[in-house]
Design brief:
The chain is of the alpha/beta class and about 150 residues long. The protein contains 5 helices and 6 strands, in the order H-E-E-E-H-E-E-H-H-E-H. The protein has helices at about 5-15, 75-85, 100-105, 110-115, 135-140, and strands at about 30-40, 45-50, 65-70, 90, 95-100, 125-130. Strands 1, 2, 3, 4, 5 and 6 form a 6-stranded mixed sheet that branches. Strand 1 (about 30-40) and strand 2 (about 45-50) form a beta hairpin. The N and C termini lie far apart (about 80 Å).
Length: about 150
Amino acid sequence: MSKRGKILVLLFLLMVMTGCWDQDSLKDARLANASAFDITSEGEIKQTLEIVDDSESQQGSSGNEVHSGTGRSVRQSTDRIRAKVTGDIRFFKYGMILYGNKLAQNDIYPYLDVLYREPDYPTSHVKIAIVDGDAGDLLHQKKLAAY
C-alpha cells in the first residue's frame, strides 16, 4: 500500500472513531423536581430535594423520594444529599424552589446566585416562592391544598 493510501485509511479511521464526549446518560440520572432551602438553628443551610421516582416497580404511582442535607454552603448540602442518593442527581426538568422565611429575611441573593452561576440549572422556567415556616416540610407532604 502506498503512503498516500495509508494516510487516507488513517484519516478515514479517525473520522469514524471519533465520538461525543459531552453525553449525559439519562438512564443513570435521578431527576430533581423541586428543592427547598431553610436555615437551621446552628446557622447552617438545610436543603431538601424532591427526586422523581422513575423505577420500573413504581411505574404508575406518584410517590417521589425526598432527601435532605445540611451544610455551611449550598454546594456542601447538595454534596451530602448526593452521598445519600444512588445515581446522579440532575436538574434537567427543574420545577420549583422554595425558601423558608427565616432564610429570606437575612439575604436571598447568595442562594439565587448559585442558580445563575451553575450551568446545569435550567433557570428559565423555575418558579421561586418564599413560604412561612420551613420550606422543606412542604416537600414532605403527599398532597398540597389548592386555594
